Amino acid sequence: MGLIVHTAPIQFIPDRSQTGIRRVCRPELFLFALGIGLSISGCSSRMHRFVSTIKPAALQPGDTIAFVAPAGRLDRERMELARQRLEEMGFRVRVPDDLYRARGYLAGTDEARAAELMAAFADPKVKAIFPGTGNFGTTRMLDRLDYDVIRRNPKIFIGFSDITGLHLAIQKKTGLVTFHSPNPMWGLGSDGNLKPFSAEYFWRALLAERYFAAGGQRLPTGYAFTLQVDMPPMRALAPGVARGRLTGGNLSLICALLGTPYEIETAGCVLFIEDVGERPYRIDRYLSQLRLAGKLDHVSAVLLGQFTDCAPKNDEQSLSLDEVLDDYFAHLGVPVLANFPAGHAANNATLPLGVLVEVDADRPQVRVLEDPVRLSSKTGR
Fold it and tell me: Considering 6, 300, 344, 358, which one is annotated as catalytic?
């Protein structure tokens, strides 16, 4: 076996809450030689093979976006409204003839949903793939996908909720940067369209023109998330500053893939999690599973998104959600930010998975440190 090097250097960042320097990995130089993995700076005692990061091309007017249904069944009215809005922006939208098929709570059979997704990745005219919704079903089809085809045909791929299953599998098997973002049914297809905050960071990540100033000058690499004045502030559970490649998504989906070929790799990464409709004892169980699986041992930082409708019922004895989160993260030894506006909520920031980000729990701030898309020489003004 040859030498495989994950080239991003280790960086040491001061923890302003303490004296001295706390070591923080980003994203960890792992050397694999002759089948022996050497972990640098104690980031992990496990041997992981990292695939090279691949970035999709940025979207431009005239590009084709494919709608797909890899999980739950779709609402035709919402999807048609999303299609109309995208076409008004100058995009072409490809809608499969049987997009609205249904089998119980699924958008058709596993075979049909996997074939539809693979057809979108294989089509050279398609530049972005927009799953209509999450709900349930992606984990049933992960072993039916051709990851070599996906790797050879990098495209923008978006979504949240159950789409986390696809984000994690694609990241693990191909290294393609994907986007944890609003789905068409719960954003572009909503009555009021995307909320201004959601729209700002959705198009900031995906559109080529958003990487250039009005005069055509290239903007500095990366960007920070700025909350609007009427939005609840983020809360620091543990202080400090750290960098790492972003990974994660819906907590229940992350746990569902543990022990499979698609399980999440967290060593040296910034772990993002969110969920919906799970009472505190279930969130507790998921987090316990992550901890026992070693997935919290070597994270660089943790970003906790929205936990919507996750409060205990009024008549039950329960820990609060904040108590559960504090139990697992307040003393983890890395920066932890809670209440980041991403997940099952109207304000749903688009997070590029697989790129370097910085979590500053002291300010507090989250910053994307590299462009998540490729920009051609023809891009811009």
Answer: 344
Answer yes or no: do 276 and 187 share one domain: no
Query: Does 87 qualify as catalytic in the annotation?
Result: no
181 and 240 share one domain: no
52 inside domain: no
Which neighbouring-strand residues pair with 223?
A: 368
Tell whether 210 is covered by a domain.
no
Q: Are residues 126 and 86 in the same domain?
A: yes
d(CA 61, CA 157): 17
Is residue 274 annotated as part of the catalytic site, yes or no?
Answer: yes
- pLDDT in tens for each of the 381 residues of the chain? 333 333 333 333 434 333 333 334 444 433 333 233 333 333 333 334 457 899 999 999 999 999 999 999 999 999 999 999 999 999 999 999 999 999 999 999 999 999 999 999 999 999 999 999 999 999 999 999 999 999 999 999 999 999 999 999 999 999 999 999 999 999 999 999 999 999 999 999 999 999 999 999 999 999 999 999 999 999 999 999 999 999 999 999 999 999 999 999 999 999 999 999 999 999 999 999 999 999 999 999 999 999 999 999 887 789 999 999 999 999 999 999 999 999 999 999 999 999 999 999 999 999 999 999 999 865 544
213 falls within a domain: no
- In angstroms, the Cα distances linking 264 to 92, 255, 257, 289 are 34, 9, 7, 13
Number of domains, the chain: 3
Catalytic residue among 28, 116, 274, 358: 274
Shared domain check, 128 and 21: no
273: containing domain: 223-368
Catalytic one of 39, 161, 181, 252: 161
Give the CATH number for residue 275. 3.50.30.60
Would you call 344 a catalytic residue per the annotation?
A: yes
Euclidean distance between CA atoms 112 and 101, whole angstroms: 9
Residue 204 included in any domain? no
Question: How far, in Å, CA of 83 to CA of 184, rounded?
Answer: 8
| Same domain? 104 vs 233 | no
Burial 82-115 (b: 16+ CB within 10 A, else e): bbebbeeeebebbebeebbbeeeebbbebebbbb
